[in-house]
Amino acid sequence: MKRKNLLYVVVPCYNEEKVLDETAKRLNAKLEALINAKKIASESKILFINDGSTDKTWAKIVAFHQQNKRITGISLARNRGHQNALLAGLMTAKNYADIVISMDADLQDDINAIDKMLEKYEQGNDIVYGVRSKRKSDSFFKRNTALAFYKIMQFLGVDVIYNHADYRLTSKKVLAALEDFGEVNLFLRGIFPLIGYSSAIVYYERAKRFAGESKYPLKKMLSFAWDGITSFSVKPIRLILSLGIIIFIISILITIYCLFVKLFGYTVDGWTFLACSMWMVGGLQMFSLGIIGEYVGKIYKETKHRPRYIIAINLEEEEKYDLL
To answer: Could you name the CATH architecture of 7-215+307-320?
Structure first.
């Protein structure tokens, strides 16, 4: 008889105490239903990752684990950001599970889509992307900025799944391949399509956040988008090169014009033209240097080879040695 797949659901958490009770309750019920339906192994678990929370998030995770061994968790030594926390969870779960599903703690991702993800996996897909069919719960601004982000990424040649965040199923061999990606500037949505393997999409309708506040204000969203662009595409640098060529051609035409004016003795008030051109070229130079500086800064970070996360506590290991 074929052994049932052992599933881990990985959930990064940063100051999620308001929603965590409901998240744990719903995920536990879903895993119990899947186990009873013999779709996954009885040892399957929910793995919460505490990303340096300053509220009672970690205390709740420990309490969940003590009451229900199906729920476990790890705590990072300090806040490392969503992508690093997610990576820490994936790499930890890889040591125990056959398949891993990652999702956010805010319950905006439809938990019932897990059933379809497992079906797609059984059909031979090693990666199953959860894709939002509708974004009714998002504001007009967020919907349109998200659309612009995906359009820009596609224009820059980055292979991303439209309307996919970090709700996905991955097999053990995919996570083994992910471990070989050593970059510090993480953008997992762009990395998984690079890994390859057979993939499929499951559509779901995104719900409103159950409780608490979004951990991605505009400033963080823009920073995340910029990281994604500069980590996966050199097109901005090539655009600078193209811009430089265009400006060079314009400058030649302007030089010819100035020589024409000089030779034929036309009186020209050149102050405005000169001042505007100097400011324009100077601004373009500063802008170009800023973009190049972003890439140089990322190279600087990559060469340090610093750890992307440090796990302070792993409840599975703590319990093994009776440290809880």
So the answer is: Alpha-Beta Complex (3.90)
Q: What is the DSSP string of 78-98?
A: S---HHHHHHHHHHHHTTT-S
Domain boundaries, the chain: 7-215+307-320, 235-304
What is the spatial distance between Cα 132 and Cα 128, in angstroms, rounded to a whole number? 13
End-to-end CA distance of the chain: 36
> What is the tens place of the pLDDT at every residue in 224-265?
666 666 666 666 766 776 776 677 677 667 667 666 666 666
The DSSP H or E segment spanning 50 is strand 45-50
Q: Which of 246, 256, 257 is nearest to 280 (CA)?
A: 246
Structure tokens that stand for 159 in this block: 């292979």
Q: Which residues pair with 313 in a beta bridge?
A: 75
Q: Give the CA angle between residues 187, 191, 195 to the nearest 5°.
A: 170
Site of tokens 């265009």: 246
pLDDT tens for each residue of 138-178 = 666 666 666 676 777 767 666 677 777 789 999 998 998 88
Of 184, 40, 31, the closest CA to residue 103 belongs to 31
